Amino acid sequence: MTERIERRLGQNSLLALYVVAAALVWFGAYHFLLPLTSWVAYSLLGLSATSRLGSAVGFFIYDVPKVLLLLAAIVFLVGILRSFVTPERARSILGGKREGVGNVLASLLGIVTPFCSCSAVPLFVGFVESGVPLGVTLSFLIAAPMINEVAATLLLGLFGWRVALLYVGTGLIIAMVAGWVIGRLHLEHWVEDWVYQMRMGESQLVEERKTWADRVSYGLQSVRDIVGRTWPYVIAGIAVGAVIHGYVPQDFMAHIMGKNAWWSVPAAVLLGVPMYSNAAGVIPVVQALMEKGASLGTVLAFMMSVVGLSLPETIILRRVLKWQMIAVFLGVVAVGIVAVGYLFNMVL
Amino acid sequence: MNIKILGSSCPNCKTLEARVREVLVELGVQAEVEKVTDMRAIMSYGIMATPGLVIDGVVKSAGRIPSKADIAAWINVAQAS
User: Fold this and answer.
1) Which of B10, B42, B58 is opposite residue A116, by nearest beta carbon?
2) So where are chain A's domains?
3) CB 3.0 to 4.6 Å from A107: which of A98, A143, A284, A312, for a disulfide?
4) How far is it, in rounded angstroms, from Cα B69 to Cα B52?
5) Could you tell me if B43 lies within 8 Å of chain A, comparing CB atoms?
6) Phi, psi at residue B52, to the nearest 5°?
7) Best residue in B5, B16, B44, B48 to probe A by mutation, most A CBs within 10 Å?
């Protein structure tokens, strides 16, 4: 017994050593990135920092590795966090909670529970069947895609921590309020009848105890999955952003996406709906547009619409919700996003 | 042996199915691999995230793609019993 504990401790300290070493390498790389890339752009390639080509190239070769480094680190940490939560655990936390408290908890759990929109149907049925109120379930289903670590990382890397925090905070509020409002409307009759007739089988899945080694490997796995899938979008997005950065005249966007164009927020939300899953490619472009006069509220609204209101997920949810309910769902979330957009255009 | 992949139209379900078939070939085990896409049938196994992997009627994993080593171990245990 003691031998086993000792071995476990030995493994864990070795693991901790690896993680600390990796973190040091990461911080070193991040710290020296700016001097290194400016040296490459302005000394090695001999570009002028004030020329159009120079500013575009400088922007590109600094931002691509920076965003990818941030993405790897954050996806890894979120992966570790997610190894502690399963949909089953989320359900047992939410079961028996009142609305209000339930909406708050569901939105928070929506962020940290590993979730793919293709699992939206079994998750919805599983929640509703075990007595989680409809509005609380929807809070979860709004927060899960809307507050997304890839989008948050890109905002952090390109706009700074304030905007990233604003995005996460307002996303949470939209999920809580929208779910609560839908719950108050008592629309249970707009859920497809078969959902209520469903008797879910007893889950026979025995949860295995995860060791820290499992959690680290889960984190690495999500880095491989997510960074592996999004890096082409990041590079393409930053490339387009770099061209805009260098070549589009200042204040070009002020008329179209500026504070004074009242219709820019709803237009941005509509435009964002079909752009699902390309948040990684869209954000760098939007960041470059903002430098040219687009306003933050409009940009945030666009962002949330890209990740939160997605056509594929809506189509999947249509299997459990009648179309009237889908319309209410989309309407409430869209109104929330538009309100956030106007609010930030006014405040900032 | 009967292996079921639970899940409809998710990219991870296809990955899981391919991985299961690979493991079967590597182990030289004969098994019937079945895809279950009907939502009610999927729910009857009590899982809330797809893809699910069921070997001889027992749910082995849900909501993730298990490693080849895990899949091979489950198949070996199911074969021994």
Assistant:
1) B10
2) 2-83, 95-197+243-347
3) A143
4) 17
5) yes
6) -110, 150
7) B48
Q: Would you say A245 and A56 are in contact if contact means Cβ atoms under 8 Å apart? A: yes
d(CA A331, CA A309): 10
**Distance of alpha carbon A194 from alpha carbon A280, whole angstroms:** 37
- Interatomic CA distance for residues A216 and A234, integer angstroms: 25
Measure the N-to-C terminal CA separation of chain A; round to a whole number of Å: 61
User: What span, in angstroms and rounded, lies between the C-alpha atoms of A87 and A119?
Assistant: 10
CB atoms under 10 Å from CB of A44, counted, come to 9
**Which of the residues B3, B13, B16, B75 is marked catalytic?**
B13
Does the annotation count B28 as an active-site position?
Answer: no
Write phi, then psi, for A224 (nearest 5 degrees).
-60, -45
Q: Give yes or no for B55 touching A (CB within 8 A).
A: no
> At A167, which amino acid appears?
Y
Rounded to whole angstroms, the Cα distance separating B80 from A205 reads 20
Residue B59: beta bridge partners?
B54
B29 is catalytic: no
Which residue's entry shows tokens 């966007």? A253
Q: Fold for domain B2-80? A: Glutaredoxin (3.40.30)
Other CB atoms within 10 A of residue A121 CB: 21
Q: What are the DSSP calls for A23-65, one per residue?
A: HHHHHHHHHHHHHHHHIIIIIIS---TTSHHHHHHHHHHHHHH
| Angstrom distance (rounded) from CA A169 to CA A333 | 15
| Residue A261 DSSP one-character state | -
User: A8-40: per-residue pLDDT in tens?
Assistant: 677 788 888 888 999 999 999 888 888 888 888
For chain B, the structural domain boundaries read 2-80
A131 vs A91: CA distance, rounded Å? 9
